[in-house]
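Exercise 7.
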Amino acid sequence: MLLVLLSAGAAVARRLRAGDPYFWDRALIWRASLEAVVERPVLGVGPGQFQYVAARFSPPHEDRPVRYGKHLDQTHSDPMRLLAEGGCAGVLAGLSALAALLLALGRGLRSAARDNDAVSPALAAAVAALMAHALVDNLSERPALVLTGAAMAGSIAALGRRSMDKRGPPRRSPSRAALVLTGFGLGSIYLWCVAGPYLADVAWRRSLSDPGGGRPLLERAIGLNPFHPAYHERAAEIEASRSGSPLVPLSFAGSVLELEEARRLDPENAGWALDEARLWRRALFEIFHDRSSQQAASRAYEEAERLAPRNPFIPLERATLFAATGDAAAAPLAVGRALAIEPNFLEARLVQAKLELDSGRFEEARRAFAEAVRRRAAAGSYQPENAYERAILNWNSSRAAELESALERRAGGS
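Solution. The predicted structure, written as tokens, is:
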């Protein structure tokens, strides 16, 4: 036992001596989680929804080349998760459940003490350890730990219930009708809430890899679970690609309806607004060629920016729309918003230089290109840790070469 303790202590000491660049990240994460609480203090963002809305609250890392390379997706504290997802109402419900649990555990431990049971206090200590760990991590995301803790707590609480049963009158067995109704209710819940969504998910995933488009499989998925927004987004994608290129009005109308349904079901997801912006953009150049389509695409981009304020790719994509439609004033502003989020966004730096050059501002274009080159060199030794960081630090060699050649020609001509 002494050897085990010494080995564990040595491992912990070695871990603490090692440098950890994310040592204080939990404080940043909790502060960002509180921003979600402030936004919806009463009912929260919804059970299980924090991971889907957390990106817009991600804390920046100013000491790294990519500020938002580490995206927030968990609160790293179950009480904080309860507050963020359930709001004040969820916290009150959680405190009530905790009080009931502690009372049941107390009765069980008193009963164990009368019976000289040494196992129950050990189980209670293990439950307390799990609860302490849950203060700084999301154990609710690990079913094995949750079920293990529940089994231990239930074993202790059962001792108190057994003691109460001995003192009270015998309990009546439930009637046959009650058992039938309970079984019917549980079976219905299983079919509608477990089996149906599972079969719908299977059909949806098969539709993604179906070389024929997967429309029949997707219709089956929507029939089994019409409340999943991703199914409607996939239906919009299939509808838009049915006619090939160019897009035709009938396919466009069907795609818009499906995307609007996805946005109605999940209004906080920036992805659906971005998909709608891209659809309107395609319709602008392939069907309508009018100002109202441009405005519809721009409004959808604006909504996507609002829902994902820390995503620099959306304002950059919007800038290319402005540039393609001749809005020379709005395009640089959109690029500026992208660079405000990620100053080392190299593609945005190159687009900025190109916009300045196309507008006839040679000196501004030259300085923008030089800044792009400088930032690329400064981040040259950094190894991106994920796809987001690789995209931010990606250097478009062909675009850079074209810009450099154009700038040299302009300098020679002047």
